[in-house]
TrEMBL record:
GO BP terms in the entry: carboxylic acid metabolic process
Designated name of the protein: Aspartate aminotransferase family protein
In-chain residues carrying the UniProt-annotated modification N6-(pyridoxal phosphate)lysine: K234
Species of provenance: Knoellia koreensis
Cofactor(s) the record lists: pyridoxal 5'-phosphate
Length: 475
C-alpha cells in the first residue's frame, strides 16, 4: 500500500528542510527570487496546469507553441533581434548552449575536426558541448584585470577549422560583459558563427542599459552575432526548466533540428535535444513574463542594481576583501587578501544563514566567492554585509586552511587516468568526502575539502568529484 497524501506531503517538507532556501533572498547561487509572492503563486498554478502536457508535438498542443512564440517575440525585442529571427524554448542554459554548438558543427560538415574559440571565462557548458559533439575547445586567456575576453587574442585564435566563436554577457564567474563588437566582427570576417551566452544576464542587462547603465553592446544589434542564449529561470524569475536560444535567421537554426524516419513508429522530429518535455515550465514562464511585462522587469532590475551598488560599497569598507573586475549586472565575485581564507569565509556565511558559492582558482586567477543577487536579496544587503563582516573577523582569526606540502606534491603528481576505484576511495577519504569505512560523509565545514580541491589540477578535481557523485547517487 502507498502512503496517505498528507504523509507524503509531510515527508516532502521534511526532506526539503535540509535544502538551501529557494526563496527569501539568502541563497546567492542556483536560485533567483523576485520577492513577489503573487508571482510565485501564479507560476506554480501555471506549472501545475500544464505539467502533463507534452512539448514533443506542437500540433497536438498548440497552446504550448503559442506560448513559446510569445516568449520568443518578447526576447527578440529585448535582444534587438532583426526581422526574420527565430527562437526555440529549451530546458535551461546548458541545453541552449549545447544546441548552439551542435548547430554550428552540423552547419559545417566539410570540417572534419571542428573547433570553437572560447575565452577561459566561458561557461563550462561549452566544455560539455565539446565533449558531447567532438568540437575542440580553443581556450583564450582573458584580461587579468577586467576578466573580459581579449578581442585581439580571440581573433588570432580563429582558423580554418573554427565553427564557432563565443562571448559572454556576462560571464558567470565575474559578472562582466565581454567586448562583443570586435569579437563578433572577427568571427564575421572569418565567416564563422558568433554565439553570445547571455543565459544569466540576457533578461536583466537590457533593462539596466535602458536605465542608463554603461553596459557594452552585446545583442543582435552587434553585427556578426548569430545566436544568443537567455534563461528565463534566472532573471525573468520563472520556475526552473526554461531557456531560449535565438538565431538571427532561420537558416542558422535549421541544423539544430533533428528528424528520423528510420523506424516503423512516428517520424521523430525535435527542435531540442529532448523529445518528451513537460509544458509546465514553458507555461509558468509565459504566465510570469506576461504578468510582469516591461514595467515589472524594469522595476526588478532597478532593485537589483541598487543592491549591487550597496554591496560593492559595503565590500569596499572591508580591508580583506575586494571585488574581482567591475561587474556589469547582478553577479559579483569577491577575492581576499592573504589574511583571509575564502573557503572558511563561505562556511562562516553559511553558518549565519547565507549561501555563497566558492569558486576555485584557475590558471593565474585566484579563488573567488560568487554572489548572484536577486530582487529579493537587494533589500537584505545590509543584513548580508553585517554577516559578511562578522564572518571575515572569524575567518581571519581562524587563519587559512593549510594543505600539507607533501599532500600538495602528491596530488599534483597524480594522473587521474591511472587510478582505479580503490584509489579513488582513498582520495575521497583524504579529501574529507568519505569516512574510514569508505561511506560518503559530507563534513559540516567544506573549507578543508575546497582547499584540497583548489590545489589539485583541474583534471584531478573533475575525477574526484565524478567519483564522489557516482557514490552519492548509488541507491
Amino acid at each position: 500500500m502507498g502512503l496517505p497524501a498528507d504523509e507524503v506531503r509531510a515527508r516532502l517538507e521534511a526532506m526539503a528542510a535540509h535544502d538551501v532556501p529557494t526563496h527569501g533572498g539568502r541563497t546567492l547561487a542556483y536560485v533567483y527570487d523576485s520577492g513577489l509572492a503573487e508571482v510565485d503563486v501564479l507560476a506554480r498554478d501555471a506549472l501545475a496546469a500544464y505539467a502533463s502536457s507534452n512539448g514533443l508535438d506542437p500540433t497536438a498542443f498548440p497552446s504550448l507553441l503559442a506560448m513559446e512564440q510569445d516568449l520568443v517575440r518578447f526576447a527578440g525585442r529585448l535582444l534587438d533581434a532583426p526581422e526574420g529571427f527565430v527562437g526555440t524554448a529549451t530546458s535551461g542554459g546548458t541545453e541552449s548552449i549545447l544546441l548552439a554548438v551542435q548547430a554550428a558543427r552540423d552547419a559545417r560538415p566539410d570540417i572534419e575536426r571542428p573547433r570553437m574559440v572560447l575565452p577561459t571565462t566561458a561557461h563550462a557548458a561549452f566544455h560539455k558541448a565539446a565533449h558531447y559533439f567532438g568540437v575542440e575547445p580553443v581556450l583564450v586567456d582573458v584580461d587579468p584585470v577586467s576578466f573580459r575576453a581579449d578581442p585581439a587574442a580571440m581573433a588570432a585564435a580563429i582558423d580554418d577549422r573554427t565553427v564557432l566563436v563565443v562571448a559572454s554577457a556576462p560571464s558567470y564567474a565575474h559578472g562582466v560583459v565581454d567586448d562583443v563588437t570586435p569579437i563578433a566582427a572577427a568571427a564575421a570576417t572569418a565567416g564563422v558563427r558568433c554565439h553570445v551566452d547571455a543565459c544569466i544576464g540576457g533578461w536583466v542587462l537590457p533593462y539596466l542599459r535602458s536605465a542608463g547603465a554603461d553596459v557594452p553592446r552585446w545583442t543582435f544589434a552587434v553585427e556578426g552575432v548569430t545566436s544568443i542564449s537567455v534563461d528565463l529561470h534566472k532573471y525573468a524569475y520563472t520556475p526552473k526548466g526554461i531557456s531560449l536560444l535565438l538565431h538571427r535567421d532561420a537558416d542558422l537554426r535549421r541544423p539544430q533540428f533533428f528528424a528520423s524516419a528510420q523506424w516503423p513508429g512516428y517520424t521523430m522530429l525535435n527542435s531540442t535535444t529532448q523529445s518528451t518535455k513537460s509544458g509546465g515550465p514553458l507555461a509558468a514562464a509565459w504566465a510570469v513574463v506576461t504578468h510582469l511585462g516591461d514595467d515589472g522587469y524594469a522595476a526588478l532590475a532597478a532593485t537589483v542594481a541598487a543592491g549591487v551598488r550597496d554591496l560593492i560599497e559595503g565590500v569596499a569598507a572591508i580591508p580583506q576583501l575586494s571585488v574581482a573586475g567591475e561587474p556589469d549586472s547582478a553577479l559579483v565575485a569577491l577575492r581576499a587578501d592573504a589574511t583571509l581564507d575564502l573557503f572558511t569565509l563561505a562556511d562562516e556565511l553559511l553558518a549565519r544563514g547565507w549561501y555563497a558559492q566558492p569558486q576555485l582558482s584557475f590558471r593565474d586567477q585566484p579563488p573567488t566567492l560568487h554572489l548572484s543577487l536577486s530582487a529579493a536579496t537587494a533589500p537584505l544587503v545590509p543584513d548580508f554585509l553585517a554577516a559578511l563582516r562578522e564572518s571575515v573577523e572569524v575567518a581571519v582569526e581562524d587563519g587559512p586552511v593549510e594543505v600539507p606540502p607533501e599532500l600538495v606534491a602528491a596530488v599534483a603528481s597524480i594522473d587521474p587516468e591511472t587510478l582505479d576505484d580503490a584509489a579513488f576511495e582513498g582520495l575521497l577519504h583524504v579529501a574529507g568526502l568519505a569516512g574510514a569505512d569508505g561511506a560518503l560523509a559530507l563534513p559540516e565545514r567544506m573549507a578543508p575539502v575546497n582547499a584540497l580541491l583548489d590545489v589539485a589540477p583541474p583534471r584531478l578535481r573533475e575525477a574526484l568529484l565524478v567519483a564522489f557523485l557516482d557514490r552519492l547517487t548509488r541507491p
